[in-house]
Amino acid sequence: YAINAADLTFRWSFDLGAGVFIKGFVWEDAGRLYFTTSDGYAWCLDGSTGQPAAPPGSPAGSCPWKSHDGITYSPVPGASTPLLLGAPNPGLYVGSYDGAAASGQKGKLYQINRTTGLKEKQVVVGDGEKQVGDVSTETWADIFVGTSEGKIFKFSLPLP
After folding, report:
1. Which tens digits make up the pLDDT trace of 30-64?
2. What is the number of other CB atoms lying within 10 angstroms of the CB of residue 119?
3. What pTM did the predictor assign?
4. Which DSSP category does 102 fall into?
5. Of the residues 40, 53, 87, 115, which has the fewest C-beta atoms closer than 10 A?
6. Which residues 6+ apart lie within 8 Å of 130 measured at CB?
7. CA of 62: how far to CAs of 16, 49, 58, in Å?
8. Contact criterion met (CB below 8 Å) for 128 and 105
9. How many of the other CB atoms lie within 10 Å of CB of 82?
């Protein structure tokens, strides 16, 4: 639900799907809302209208979207609360873990393009065998992410 902060009136609502909820908090930038959901997607919604996700392959500059690889929607397994960064390292950074090393996913950090929703870069966090937590930054040149084994990893930006 979007509420007008000035007078607390209803603006719009968007149905994420049965049993799906927003993880963590919602980032806002230039009228766009960025967040992750319990079903493992990173999203961008137009904050003024709450329009649903555009189909994969939408033109550059389009919002809304949900994370995808090429032409099919591709979730971010076990998506953590995202970190939104602007220049010089723009992207939506999301931790991921699907719990099944055999799948090849493992514990990863994704950089998602803020304009298209495409997963641009990915790196394995630690040995990839532990749950990846929320992403944070202190300098905007490095990002930090912890794992369920109690270790914190530092990645310099841009990601390799």
Report:
1. 888 889 999 888 888 887 776 655 545 555 556 67
2. 21
3. 0.84
4. G
5. 87
6. 97, 107, 147, 148, 149, 151
7. 19, 14, 6
8. no
9. 26
